[in-house]
Amino acid sequence: MSSLKPRERDAVVQALRAGVVPKLGLRHLQVGRAREIEELVKDMDRIADGGAAIRFVIGEYGSGKTFFLNLIRLVALEKGLVVMFADLAPDRRIHATGGQARSLYAEMARNLSTRTKPDGGALPSVVERFVSQAQRDAEASERSVADVIRERLAHFEELTGGFDFAEVVRRYWEGHEAGDETLKSAALRWLRGEFTTRTDARKALGVRTIVDDASVYDHLKLMSAFVREAGYKGLLVGLDEMVNLFKLSSSQARNANYEQILRILNDVLQGSAAHLGFLMGGTPEFLMNTRRGLYSYEALQSRLAENSFARDGLVDLSGPVIRLASLTPEDLFVLLSNIRAVMQDEATALPDEALEAFMHHCSDRIGEAYFRTPRNTVTAFVNLLAVLQQNPGVQWTELVESIEIAADQGDDLSDIDESVGALAPSEELVSFRL
Amino acid sequence: MTNAFDRLARPIQKWVRAQGWRELRDIQARAIHMVRDGDADLIIAATTAGGKTEAAFLPLISAVLDEPSSSPGFDLLYVGPLKALITDQARRLDDICREAELPVVPWHGDVGASIKSRALKAPRGILLITPESLEALFIRRGLEIARLFASTRAVVIDELHSVLDNARGIQMRSLLTRLELAAKRRIRRIGLSATLGDMALARGYLRPDSPQDVAILEARGGSAELQLQVRGYVRSDDGPPAADAIARHLFDHLRGSDNLVFAGSRQSVEIYADRLRALCEAAHLPQEFYPHHASLSREHRDFVERRLQAGNLPTTAVCTSTLELGIDIGDVTCVAQIGAPFSVASLRQRLGRSGRRAGQPAILRQYALEAQLAANSSFADRLRLGLVRAVAMIELLLEGWCEPPQREALHLSTLVHQILSVIAEKGGIRAPQLHHILCVEGPFRKVDTAIFLEVLRAIGHPETGLIEQASDGILLLGQTGERLVEHYSFYAVFQTPEEFRLISDGRELGTIPIDNVLVPGMLLIFSGRRWQVLEIHDRDRVILVAPATAGVPPVFGGDPGMIHDRVVERMFIVLEEVHRPIYLDAAANDLLDEARAAYRQLSFENGRIAHLGEDAFVLATRRGTVATTTLALALRSVGYTVQSYDGFLEVFGKQTTPPLTSALSEFAEGREPELFDETANLRFEKFHPYLTDQLLERDALSARVDGRALAPLSRELLGREL
């Protein structure tokens, strides 16, 4: 394993303490799930070779979906793919009429990353790379740059919305050529889906359309074609927190979103998309609930139904649904050791029995659930290590027993939680079940 | 102290000067100081046309203009109960704000989508909205609420006295709480109200957590002149119908000016409007009397409202309570009321439509329609209860009294509505947060955790399907819940009382509105006959009845409506005293004399129980609908057949029933009878059908029936010491 850079180390520690998944240094933490990872690495290769892939990563709250998605994201970057990741939210979804889908696209475009810019915000460099390549080609073949760009974008016009997409890239080139920063940034804003009205876009760029709620998927396809032209291998789109679709209160809105997912699924599985991959992370409920989950949409249920032979320990990882199995106690032990290795020097490291005591304590407190959802365990462990590090005199044995740890509930509504927290709601309310 | 005028912003000063006002009214001057000095909650109470709106808005707008907010969001929020009122207030405020270029955005069902989307894009200025549209905003744009109201400085609640404690008022309070939770700060509340006898009520309503900090500004003096007359009419079987006489009187006195005639039910609105139209035609005069009720098409209602607003053609609207709340339909000369109203609050509301201009009196014409007496007439007809109630209410109105809110009521139907609304707003919520929003911060504080959870279970039952729960505990809308919330009719929490169909022997008798608890064995009066309730099918809104043999039925009987204890108390004072109110006409005076004589004849003086015949009694409960209904239910449970009136119960025993006094003594000693039958009608409000019977009984016990009143009332009736 390669050594850990200090910058990565800080990022990992910070992220773990906050209970979120670090974007860097994941390889230092990952344990288990080797076959799942292997399968998805194959997917990434397929995308790079001109294929398409879609995977639904299904696991309980805190079971490591996001971690898993981020790991794959790093793999994709290494393979030379461009990635666009975003979390769904009540105001960011795949299909909508009130700007929520455009807002999802804008979020994805802001997070667009490449290998050299893995933290997002890579769209300008992708466009820049396309333009400078066109310039080089033009010089080599002694043609005008504008001609080269037109030629290379010619096939875009066959795609939905491709004409205006190509037009915007040409405008970018014009701005580049004339040193017109306003025009360039307008073009980038258009590509990021930040124009909210057609009138504004027409004024700024002279195009008649914008990225709107109805054209999000079309623009993802255009983007995948574009990154190919810019010299990347393909595009990986990652959508996390899909459970937000499950929570939509209007059945119409839910079905419209599922219809979009079906469209994507059909395109990918039938092979009509190229150099394009989708990863979607959600809870089992989001997938399986037959009233409001993906399974409520007949056509999706039949396509996503799991292999009926894959049970009792047998697995089939070739279907679109990947279930994240729970970590075993051994996996968890390795995970904690990895964290220890990240946070502590070999000289001062906790002994293995401390890890065992810690795990024992956790499983006493919240039972079997803690294997399924490592998030809280990891956070508590990182906190423990942090205290030990900053208070050299303290022994780990004194601290382990006093660790508070709770079962994972997913996170939302933090604004109300603050005020409720102060009042300590009664147990009946907290544990309420219909 | 600086002059109030100087504390207004320039553009507002300019507007005030342009109005040609010689000076600001006293209430306006005081309000300007109060609003600009701090951010305390405030109630501005004045008579109609007392300049309340300006008193609140001149300083508020000035504050906005002096320190414009840097972030987007509406600066001021105005909540008014009716669309027409909002349209009218928008016109007035637009006039004030034009100079200052502050947008005024009216927002209700009839406002165009372009105005709304423009306001949503760049929210600023004053938003005028109905509680229902605010609810819709929460449900459909829950995530934007915080942005829309990020810089809101104050909420102005108009007609505060009209939303004290009904379902709509609770909804509004809940919305205001949710607004503050979304904005994460307290937002100043300013209530505009008519003058009430007991302003403390309104303070508690406006800010339940700290009513003591709510300042009250009452207009000094300036009580408008009130002219009123109560006219008595006897409905005769022979000779011209009384309705003709009333219509003729209305025609003679109202023609040529703008008026409102409140005729009670839709049916009688049509009858009077038709008679008045016929009178116009017979006299070859232009038509100026128009009906107005909820069953008429919107075009027709708009036509009437516009005609009243324009004020260039004399118009009289004959209406139900649809025109009761504050539509500013210009100046109405006179308000006529046919039949007694049910509450002083609504009478005040209605009267508030007239005399809005300085120097003009408010005029109330009350028409009391009573039965013609025969040798065997019922005691209820002899007591002229309708007239007596009208007199009692007018007396209370003159004293400035108004029905207080029911502090104990659970409002479970409204709670269900708000649960669905919060879930829709947030897209899903856990039980503790939901409980916190509604029952700790919000207005449902009488609902304890156990009842709250029971409500959740009731509406989450798979067969009810209003809500469901995800595996992580989040409550989501269920199948039925989604359907309900998606329809625009969800936004209104109140509903017009549904009418029950009366069926006897397979024959439909007609429909009546019912507003109090009925169980089999009770009596009710319909089309001049008395019927015994056999079965109640609450969900289908059907009551099976059989003709009752007991006693002589009154011609007018048991109106629906919740009448307050204090009103009934005053009715007995009216019956017992000898003083004649000066506002009665000769016929009404005669009727009142008859009523007093009949009351004496019933010989209640010694006790509270009068014998009508063998096994037939009249009990003078001297209480309002809640306590009287409770006693009726209790007596019914031991086998009596009962009929309730305002403050009276008519009771018929059978051979098998225990003697009345022993039944009452048992209640007096604290025995708690089974008040509700399985088939009692307990579904009154919009979301009652989704609750369990136990919850409905709890709800009824908190608002419509009062088990604790039974023992003291029984002791009183028996003449025992309390």
What does this structure look like?
The complex is a heterodimer of chains A (434) and B (722). Chain A is built from 21 helices and five strands. Chain A is α/β, with parallel strands linked by helices and 434 residues long. About 3% of the residues of chain A have low confidence. In chain A, helix 2 crosses helix 3. Chain A is 54% helix and 7% strand. The mean pLDDT of chain B is 85. A seven-stranded parallel beta sheet of chain B has the order 3-4-2-5-6-1-7, with helices on both faces. A six-stranded parallel beta sheet of chain B has the order 8-13-12-9-11-10, sandwiched between helices. The interface between A and B is large, with 35 and 43 residues.
**Rg of chain A (C-alpha, Å):** 24 Å
**Backbone CA Rg of chain B:** 27 Å
Structural class, judged by helices and strands of chain A? alpha/beta
Main β-sheet of chain B: number of strands, strand sense, barrel status? 7 strands, parallel
Low-confidence stretches of chain A: 410-422
Q: Work out the number of β strands of chain B.
A: 24
The total count of strands of chain A amounts to 5
Average pLDDT metric of chain A: 84
Instruction: Give unreliable regions of chain B as ranges.
Output: none
Number of helices of chain A: 21
> Could you report the average pLDDT of chain B, rounded to the nearest whole number?
85
Biggest β-sheet of chain A: count, sense, barrel? 5 strands, parallel
What's the N-to-C terminus distance of chain A?
A: 49 Å
Shape of chain A: globular
Strand content of chain A: 5-15%
Give the CA-based shape of chain B. Answer: globular
Distance between the termini of chain B: 56 Å
